[in-house]
# Entry
Amino acid sequence: MEGSDNKTEEEKETHILASDSITHFKTVASFGNDQILLEEFAAINSRRAQKTNRSSCCYAVSLGLSVAIQNLVFAVFYYATAALNAEFGWYGPCQYDKMYIAMFVFIFGAFTAAQSTAMGPDVGKAKLAAKKIFTIMGTPSKIDVLAAEVSSKQPVKAETFRGKIEFRDVWFRYPARLN
# Structure
């Protein structure tokens, strides 16, 4: 899934068109432009679909191949077990119940390992986020509530407390209007 920073031009266009249409729906309805906007929205999505069609086909083929390989591995293990069973019988040198258990452990262990490697980038992001959080938590506060001069003062009563806020050196301006 793409993040909000990686949006294509078509995605941006559709979001702008949709948000403007919804925001100004009365104007759109009064001029009867709803069909025009729907056609424009469909055209943008059609261009987007044409661009993503090839990658979607590649993804579908790779997914189909991975499922086919998975089932092929199952078939090979079942065939090998059946061939050994035909050769030696159920009471031969192989213990088939343990062979089936080993087969399932191997297959599902391999699949789990493959799925966990797909989450590798997320693990790196999680480590970075945890490091940032612990850095913030480890930063000492400028206001120490446990300091002697703060804790020695009388407790504040909510009924009688009247806060006074003073703003100093505060300013505001729009980025486009610097003056």
Notes: The chain has six helices and no strands. Residues 132 and 138 are 10 Å apart (CA to CA). Helices lie at 9-23, 25-31, 34-88, 96-118, 120-138, 148-151.
